[in-house]
């Protein structure tokens, strides 16, 4: 016996630790070997239908694939952003077809269901597979077995294979637009504020919206500002408009918002310096800087090694308005006029304000809505005197009298440019159709 003859407790403890360490190393080595890609076929052409939907259901195993991304930050892997049933999906395999040699590799996937599932049976998941060392596959298929016919499996294009230079500084990710969304005026105002603050791209995961909103989206798509990702999650799962599970038969919370946010980070990892995670009724307003670029330059200088910056959310109730900026042509447009709402709710005692984020997407591994779950680098809370989130929506503290609210006219610093820009958009979309 390995530890025979050891009489002292110290020696026995050292012996136990040594044996445990040896067993752990052996186990980890076997685990890694079990996930190594293995050749199962040779001399084949890559077949199978290319998947072109933003959400693809795999047959019979409660798994939905959004998109795969190449990720070499730790090792050479394909990381698929997906949605899985947290209990019923135990085993998946990546099938890689390598050309021109025609070898088909199968790699056992690591299924990492995100911790922020909020009780729902389905949650965002990373499905991670080691890639073949001597092959840079352009497509991957997913199957619950290492055996079968790859020709019968949908093929997904692996994005981010080639590193690119940043095409934009800031991309805003909005997920998800649902409920026949029709807050047209506030949406246009938010879009124009984003542009004033330095945003070049807004990615919207669209479930549905009104006909009028479609016209506005078409304008911004043609302008080159908006990219629409169709998000028909209701076709696959029973979705909830709540963020937490209510035991009401729903499968996933808030229209799969967390999955969309993670996909948006990876989708823009190689093309945007920063990614901004907020809703369409939220605007990060800098107080000490004129725009986001100068603000982020300053924040990065003050917080070296930080990749996630979190901004406090503050509610400006849409029920409390001023008479300022009552622009007659805007009164025919459905939605809220944010320039008339400059009273914010005070902080509540013992209640922490939720935060939204500006992140370096290359440093994020997994994100939730109000914080990142895994990232390289630090997170920093941005002080309220540097910036805050202007969030114009229904009141949270509904019984507060007006005199208890805080007058905050930071938004008015941008009123001249905002009014001109909103009028231009309205004249080419809504008002033009009303003539």
UniProtKB/TrEMBL annotation:
Q: Where in the cell is it found?
A: Membrane
One GO CC term on file:
cytoplasm
Q: Where are the transmembrane segments?
A: 9-28
Q: Name one Pfam family in it.
A: Glyco_transf_92
Please verify whether the record's keywords include GTP-binding. no
Does the UniProt entry include the keyword Transmembrane?
Answer: yes
Primary location: membrane
Q: Keywords for this entry?
A: Glycosyltransferase, Membrane, Transferase, Transmembrane, Transmembrane helix
Q: What is a GO molecular function of this protein?
A: glycosyltransferase activity
UniProt-listed InterPro entries: Glyco_transf_92
Q: What is its EC number?
A: 2.4.1.-
Q: How does it sit in the membrane?
A: Single-pass membrane protein
Similarity comment: Belongs to the glycosyltransferase 92 family.
Protein name in the entry: Glycosyltransferase family 92 protein
């Amino acid at each position: 016996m390995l530890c025979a003859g050891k009489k002292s407790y110290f020696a026995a403890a050292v012996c136990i630790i040594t044996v445990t360490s040896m067993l752990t190393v052996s186990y980890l080595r076997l685990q890694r070997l079990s996930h190594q890609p293995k050749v199962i076929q040779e001399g084949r052409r890559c077949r199978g239908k290319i998947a072109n939907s933003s959400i693809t259901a795999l047959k019979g195993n409660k798994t939905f694939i959004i998109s795969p991304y190449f990720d070499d930050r730790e090792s050479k892997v394909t990381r698929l952003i997906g949605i899985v049933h947290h209990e019923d999906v135990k085993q998946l395999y990546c099938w890689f077809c390598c050309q021109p040699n025609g070898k088909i590799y199968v790699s056992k996937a690591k299924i990492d269901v995100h911790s922020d599932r909020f009780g729902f049976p389905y949650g965002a998941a990373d499905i991670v597979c080691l890639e073949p060392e001597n092959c840079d596959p352009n497509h991957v298929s997913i199957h619950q077995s290492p055996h079968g016919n790859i020709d019968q499996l949908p093929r997904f294009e692996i994005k981010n294979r080639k590193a690119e230079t940043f095409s934009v500084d800031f991309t805003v990710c909005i997920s998800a637009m649902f409920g026949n969304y029709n807050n047209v005026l506030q949406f246009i105002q938010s879009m124009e504020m984003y542009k004033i603050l330095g945003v070049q791209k807004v990615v919207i995961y669209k479930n549905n919206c009104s006909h009028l909103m479609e016209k506005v989206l078409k304008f911004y798509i043609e302008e080159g500002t908006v990219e629409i990702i169709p998000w028909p999650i209701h076709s696959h799962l029973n979705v909830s408009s709540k963020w937490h599970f209510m035991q009401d038969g729903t499968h996933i919370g808030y229209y799969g918002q967390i999955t969309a946010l993670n996909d948006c980070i990876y989708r823009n990892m190689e093309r945007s310096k920063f990614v901004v995670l907020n809703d369409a009724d939220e605007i990060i307003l800098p107080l000490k800087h004129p725009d986001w670029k100068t603000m982020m330059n300053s924040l990065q200088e003050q917080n070296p090694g930080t990749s996630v910056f979190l901004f406090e959310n503050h509610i400006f109730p849409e029920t409390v308005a001023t008479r300022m900026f009552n622009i007659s042509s805007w009164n025919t447009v459905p939605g809220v006029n944010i320039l008339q709402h400059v009273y914010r709710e005070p902080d509540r005692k013992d209640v922490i304000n939720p935060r939204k984020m500006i992140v370096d997407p290359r440093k994020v591994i997994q994100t939730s809505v109000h914080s990142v779950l895994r990232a390289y680098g630090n997170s920093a809370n941005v002080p309220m005197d540097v910036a805050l989130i202007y969030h114009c929506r229904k009141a949270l503290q509904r019984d507060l009298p007006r005199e208890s609210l805080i007058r905050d006219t930071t938004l008015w610093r941008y009123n001249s440019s905002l009014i001109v820009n909103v009028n231009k958009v309205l004249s080419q979309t809504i008002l033009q159709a009303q003539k």
